[in-house]
Amino acid sequence: MEMIITLSRRTLQEALMVSSPILIVGIVVSIVISVLQVMTSIQEVTISTVPRLAAVAGAMFVCMPWILRHLITFMVQLFGDFHPFLK
């Protein structure tokens, strides 16, 4: 039972670590656009959606090598020490 909890915890930590840069970029861009919309009183949906999508796509493009290296390292560590899970 302890191994299952440890493996689940490590997997959730990796998922948070990998997704956090993209989520942070999305949140920051959303806040900036919301403030600009409040200041200018322009309430168009596309003005808030298109820049957010572009920023998230750019963040994914920039962070993809780091994300892949991080996930590959996690998988190599997991499968390299797979013997305890076979019991």
Largest sheet: none
Count of distinct strands: 0
Figure out the total of helices: 2
Quaternary structure of the protein: single chain
Percent helix among the residues? over 70%
Tally the structural domains. 1
How big a fraction of the residues is strand? under 5%
Shape descriptor: elongated
Structural class: mainly alpha
> What's the SSE pattern?
HH
Distance between the termini: 12 Å
Unreliable parts: none
Radius of gyration: 19 Å
Describe the protein's topology.
Layout lengths: L1 H39 L4 H36 L7
Helix pairs in contact: 1-2
Question: What descriptors fit this protein?
Answer:
single chain; 87 residues; mainly alpha; 2 helices; 0% strand
What does this structure look like?
By secondary structure, this protein is mainly α. It has one domain (19-86). The chain is 86% helix and 0% strand.
Summarize the structure.
The protein is mainly alpha-helical. It has 2 helices and no strands.
